[in-house]
């Protein structure tokens, strides 16, 4: 027991004595000293030429900034190449899963006609898909309802439809949404210019989603259950503007 208490008081020469260190230390302070000992051949030293590398002392004289930087760049390029390959593999897997999911959806749609249970499940899956897609789109605010284009031409409709598709719009609603981009399909509360002028304050309560890259918004039913029936339609409205969207 006495030896146990005396053990930390023992003195010992520094491990770097062979490299010139003459200190004799208590055993319990040796570890701290070894980390700071200027004679430690492995003591890390920052390169004084500014390359940013930290080099063990015994390798410092052979350090070459250009060589080390080239080696680092080569290593990073290799890692980048490996990541690109991995991303490519992941994309293939994702595309395969999307294909299988689409096949499953097609099967559910085929079965829903004859099976009420399958019809209920398929309907819920489609609703959930629309909600997930909606959540990926940024919220938008219309500052000028008077800038609405209520009768878009075919070219403008095609451009908006392409933007919807690229944003991930579920295929089962895209045609219905595009039908609802024209005032002939709008509900009573949007059906005429005079009505729209009178209802602008009501429209401010819409939850709008930005169609990416376009002066157009989506007003989806899943986001707007709080709105009255005379200003909503399933599965939602597409509103195109000349200006006035934030």
Automatic annotation (TrEMBL):
The keyword Coiled coil applies. Residues 66-100 form a coiled coil. GO terms for molecular function: ubiquitin protein ligase activity. Residues 68-246 form the E3 ubiquitin-protein ligase NRDP1 domain. It holds the Pfam family USP8_interact. GO terms for biological process: protein ubiquitination. Keywords: Coiled coil. This is E3 ubiquitin-protein ligase NRDP1 domain-containing protein.
